[in-house]
UniProtKB/TrEMBL annotation:
<dbReference type="InterPro" id="IPR025296">
    <property type="entry name" value="DUF4158"/>
</dbReference>
<dbReference type="GO" id="GO:0006313">
    <property type="term" value="P:DNA transposition"/>
</dbReference>
<feature type="domain" description="DUF4158">
    <location>
        <begin position="6"/>
        <end position="170"/>
    </location>
</feature>
<dbReference type="GO" id="GO:0004803">
    <property type="term" value="F:transposase activity"/>
</dbReference>
<keyword id="KW-0233">DNA recombination</keyword>
<dbReference type="InterPro" id="IPR047653">
    <property type="entry name" value="Tn3-like_transpos"/>
</dbReference>
<feature type="domain" description="Tn3 transposase DDE">
    <location>
        <begin position="588"/>
        <end position="975"/>
    </location>
</feature>
<dbReference type="GO" id="GO:0003677">
    <property type="term" value="F:DNA binding"/>
</dbReference>
<dbReference type="Pfam" id="PF13700">
    <property type="entry name" value="DUF4158"/>
</dbReference>
<comment type="similarity">
    <text>Belongs to the transposase 7 family.</text>
</comment>
<keyword id="KW-0815">Transposition</keyword>
<dbReference type="InterPro" id="IPR002513">
    <property type="entry name" value="Tn3_Tnp_DDE_dom"/>
</dbReference>
<dbReference type="Pfam" id="PF01526">
    <property type="entry name" value="DDE_Tnp_Tn3"/>
</dbReference>
<protein>
    <submittedName>
        <fullName>Tn3 family transposase</fullName>
    </submittedName>
</protein>
<keyword id="KW-0238">DNA-binding</keyword>
Length: 1003
């Protein structure tokens, strides 16, 4: 049974000493005075003392003691020998008698308070493994968790075969427990429904399971109706009533992943105890996913027509402007006559009707007259042209989806209910009592005009359009929510409850360095503001710097000059590049896996652990297929691996979670390289969107003529000051990037302590400024037209101008400090909900940014964000070195954009995946390849620098800091692709690296 999880060689490694890192060496192999007294009593030989010390340190490190104590890592043995003043060679004589080792293990366990794994200890281990197996089904993960549990419980780990057998038993128990917890759902009727999901349905041409898993690729009326049909089907079989909370969230995710990847035939072959929990979980998750999809498509389809109407309106305004040129000329001539004081009043009429203008021009101008435009310049009237199209799907959405909301949306929800009733009964006239208070002022004129004219049809059209647009905006801001939805849930559900927050408040305030007392917190912020403004005041007093006031008292900010890169750095980079070996991208990925083991992060979605010898080869081919944009078909032709094998590998191994884990392994390795710390401390990062064209329809793609010939999407990436990309997200190009800035920072699983983050103008909102500070971080954007933003003051204008004569007049708005203080605890609770992972930042930031003035919490957060933005602006303007640092970090992000463009070369760089999951996986493959290039180049730069220094060459770190590893001059992305791992590893020298090139040669 054990070999199903680990091969024989892996089992052998689990019984032996592993390699040891620097941190582990100092942590576990440092003896205290009590330890020395324990291992070195009088009469005990040097070899025995050293062997006993190895056992003493190995047990807390590994949780067990390998049989061959003499095979301990040499560096660890040397460290212990130095502390005991004995010769390292003495260890060779230790352990010739097995009884000696066993007796010493018993003595060490007694000294450290450890226990052998008896019946009681194994029973407790089984209980722990069962609890974990309900969350995770990966045997290797459960094995590792079991080892960690035994160490924490101070129980000596039994042999790996024994532990693997306990893991297998726990997995089997978890499957049975899963079925038992859901058994009440598996009635005869329910089981028949679940089995029916696997049968081909002639009406849709596929099985219902596959139908539910097939997402839309466009936001059309037919796509919305198709998703509504799915929602009605799910509700018809009671999917929304399923309560899956009896299972841990990780177990539900695992079962749903299995259900979406397995074919209907594969599920039919599984026994009922495994098949029914999988199908039930898919059904429950589909209920939420399809509901979110319906509402999302509703928003997107309406917004598409709203945008098209706006473009038509702008075109009509342009045409109106062209045809109005004659009337404008007539007006100019009229004004010239009327305002001429030399012309008497009695002469004006004659000049206008006679020789100066004439009746012909006047009549022509009257004929060209057009009716006055409404306040919105005809936007809603242009949208009315799409009324019949919207009617193709909006009645179905309103009849299927239930909406709720707070007091701010009361009238709107009444109107939605009335519209639903009108649709159901077929009535055409809007009732007299129908509310219209939710209609924006710019559109009320349409309703008033229609009512005056007595046109019930026109009134119905405009009122219904206002209801639909109001519903869309309410869903975006959170004033309206959808019960049962995840993406459009009640905003209150995203926050920790008062009961959850109370015990966590103190810990959160300690983590972020904020006071729970609003008076104390705001006093500190006010002092910080005054200090920053005083620094800016001193700069403005100089009068002639890059930041100064002009004669009118307006702020003038000269652009930063291009950074002066030392000529020495340019020459050094060219020299290093000549020394780096040439390597195809496939060789690079193979070489990095040898050092990082990142390919081991790709686990089978079902939890299976049997790995064929060809699996790594297939994984590398899949990663290259996506990161170069060749696709699986072309990659199969290029490397000689069949498409079926690549598709199967991609389906079961390449997922967002495994890609994230593999990237994390590469980033952690890159972080430990000596040269990495020269580039940066790892505390500063930046984020920016990169746009890629798409081919084919996709609900994530948008037309943006500035960037695409047709449509495209954005990848939003987060990059550290060490050039590593730690976050990647697919976003719609027309959405604000600012909503996604915090997502990857809060979800950052690396060891990098990000404390400051830079963005360009697209990543900036007042909400973000407030949240970053509340989370204990600094948002440091490069804001376009910074001199035109509003600066805020905490007190009266007179006080600010008296204290800061030059800067005070620039602070034109007064902060509402009372509002911030009133909602201070709620602001902390909001930030705490994000910090502790209770909510997704992009959801909250999007809703808070869209919220109106009636949302007091959003208003308070924006007010606090205004305070933080003013502090930042003053610091940024006062310190040119700070501005340079932010610009340098953003340039690092841009250089990685260029590298990603080089990598994604095939098919003109057009993304062809049509669904979000596929696009996300391809984006993470590209990120993995990018990080691999960065890590490989950094490592070989370091080897080249080390070689130079050994020859006596002086190379300063200040010069190296200007050299970026984000280049691809030494990497070949093109040509034949042969994934031969053994042959590639054979090319590495005895040191495990490719030999550096001799300068001025091709080899």
């Amino acid at each position: 049974m054990a070999t199903r999880v680990f091969a024989d060689e892996e089992l052998a490694r689990l019984r032996e000493f592993p390699e040891i890192g620097r941190e582990e060496l100092f942590r576990f192999f440092t003896l205290t005075s009590a330890d020395v007294a324990f291992v070195a009593p009088q009469g005990r030989g040097a070899g025995v003392r050293l062997g006993l010390a190895v056992i003493l340190c190995s047990l807390p490190w590994l949780g067990f003691v390998p049989d061959r104590v003499a095979d301990a890592p040499p560096v660890a043995v040397a460290r212990l020998a130095g502390q005991l003043n004995v010769d390292v060679a003495q260890l060779r004589s230790y352990g010739r008698r097995a009884q000696t080792r066993s007796e010493h293990v018993r003595l060490v366990a007694q000294y450290l308070g450890w226990r052998a794994a008896g019946a009681m200890e194994l029973k407790e281990l089984d209980e722990f493994l069962l609890a974990r197996a309900l969350e995770h089904d990966s045997p290797t993960l459960l094995f590792r968790l079991g080892c960690e549990y035994l160490i924490s419980a101070r129980v000596i780990r039994p042999g790996p075969v024994t532990l693997v057998e306990r893991v297998a038993h726990a997995r089997a128990q978890a499957q049975a427990e899963t079925y038992d917890r859901l058994a009440h759902e598996f009635t005869a009727e329910r089981c028949a429904q679940l089995d029916g999901l696997l049968v081909n349905d002639a009406s849709i041409g596929m099985s219902r399971l596959r139908w539910l898993a097939t997402g839309p690729v466009e936001a059309s009326a037919s796509a919305v109706r198709a998703e509504v049909d799915k929602l009605e089907f799910l509700r018809g079989i009671g999917a929304e009533e399923l309560d899956m909370s009896v299972l841990p969230a990780e177990r539900r995710r695992f079962l749903a992943t299995m259900g979406r990847r397995l074919t209907g035939q594969a599920l039919e072959r599984r026994d009922p105890q495994r098949r029914y929990p999988i199908l039930l979980t898919v059904l429950a998750q589909s209920g939420t996913d399809v509901l979110d999809e319906v509402v999302g498509l509703f928003d997107q389809a309406i917004s598409a027509k709203f945008g098209a109407a706006e473009r038509r309106m702008q075109q009509e305004l342009a045409e109106r402007g062209k045809t109005g040129e004659d009337r404008q000329g007539l007006l100019d001539d009229l004004l010239a006559i009327v305002t001429d004081l030399g012309i008497g009043d009695e002469q004006i009429g004659g000049l206008i009707r006679g020789e100066r203008i004439g009746w012909e021009r006047l009549r022509a101008a009257i004929a060209q007259a057009k009716p006055r435009l409404p306040r919105d310049h005809g936007h809603l009237a242009a949208l009315d042209g799409s009324y019949s199209y919207l009617r193709q799907f909006t009645p179905a959405v309103l009849s299927t989806v239930r909406f709720a909301g707070g007091t701010a949306a009361t009238e709107l929800l009444i109107a939605v209910h009335m519209l639903r009733e009108l649709n159901a009964t077929g009535a055409r006239k809007v009732p007299e009592q129908a509310p219209a208070g939710f209609v924006p002022t710019r559109w009320r004129g349409y309703l008033e005009e229609a009512r005056k004219s007595g046109s019930a049809t026109a009134y119905r059209h405009y009122w219904e359009l206002c209801v639909l647009l109001g519903l869309r905006d309410g869903l975006r801001s959170g004033d309206v929510f959808v019960p049962g939805s995840r993406r459009y849930a009640d905003p209150a559900a995203y926050l920790l409850t008062s009961q959850q927050w109370e015990p966590q408040r103190g810990e959160f305030c300690r983590l972020v360095g904020k006071s729970a007392d609003p008076a104390q917190a705001l006093a500190a912020a006010t002092d910080e503001l005054h200090t920053a403004v005083a620094e800016l005041e001193a700069v403005l007093a100089g009068g002639d710097g890059p930041v100064r006031l002009d004669e009118a008292g307006d702020l003038v900010i000269s652009p930063l000059t291009a950074e002066d890169v030392p000529a020495e750095a340019i020459a050094l980079k060219a020299e290093l590049t000549e020394m780096l070996p040439f390597a195809p991208n496939v060789s690079l990925l193979i070489e990095l896996d040898k050092r990082t083991g990142y390919l081991d992060c790709f686990t089978h979605a079902s939890g299976k652990q049997a790995r064929t010898p060809e699996l790594k080869r297939n994984l590398i081919a899949v990663l290259l297929a996506y990161s170069t944009n060749l696709g699986l078909t072309r990659m199969g032709e290029a490397c000689g691996i069949s498409y079926d094998i690549l598709a199967w590998t991609s389906e079961w191994y390449v997922r967002e979670e495994t890609l994230r884990a593999a990237n994390l392994a590469i980033i952690d390795y890159h972080q430990r390289l000596p040269l990495t710390t020269v580039f940066g401390a790892g505390t500063l990062s930046c984020s920016d969107g990169q746009r890629f064209p798409t081919r084919g329809k996709s609900i994530t793609a948008r037309a943006l003529s500035r960037y695409f010939a047709n449509e495209g999407l954005s990848t939003y990436t987060h990059v550290t000051d060490q050039h590593a990309t730690y976050g990647t997200k697919i976003i719609v190009t027309t959405r604000r990037e600012a909503h996604y800035v915090l997502d990857e920072i809060l979800g950052n699983a690396t060891d990098l302590p990000i404390t400051e983050h830079a963005t360009d103008t697209h990543g900036v909102t007042l909400v973000n400024f407030g949240l970053f500070d509340l989370l204990g971080m600094q948002l440091s954007p490069r804001i376009r037209d910074l001199g035109r933003i509003t600066l805020y003051r905490p007190g009266p204008r007179a006080d600010a101008e008296t204290k800061f004569p030059r800067t005070g007049p620039l602070m034109t708005r007064k902060l509402n400090m009372e509002l911030i203080a009133e909602h201070w605890d709620d602001l902390l609770r909001l930030a705490g909900s994000l910090k502790f992972g209770h909510a997704t930042a992009s959801l909250l930031v999007g809703k808070l940014s869209a919220s109106g003035r009636q949302n007091a919490l959003a208003a308070a957060l924006k007010e606090y964000g205004a305070l933080r933005r003013t502090i930042y602006a003053a610091k940024y303007l006062a310190d040119p070195d700070y501005r340079r640092k932010i610009s340098r970090q953003l340039n690092k992000g841009e250089s990685l954009h260029a590298l990603r463009r080089d990598l994604l070369y095939a098919h003109e760089g057009m993304i062809r995946a049509r669904h979000l999951d596929g696009q996300t996986e391809q984006a993470w493959c590209l990120t993995l390849a990018t990080n691999a290039v960065i890590a490989w180049t950094t490592e070989y730069y370091g080897l080249a620098v080390e070689q130079m220094r050994r020859t006596g060459r002086r190379i300063d770190d200040d010069v190296l800091a200007h050299i970026s590893p984000a280049h691809s001059e030494n990497i070949n992305f093109f040509g034949a692709i042969e994934v031969d791992i053994d042959a590639e590893l054979a090319q590495l020298g005895p040191t495990g690296y490719r030999p550096l090139r001799v300068r001025d040669t091709l080899f």
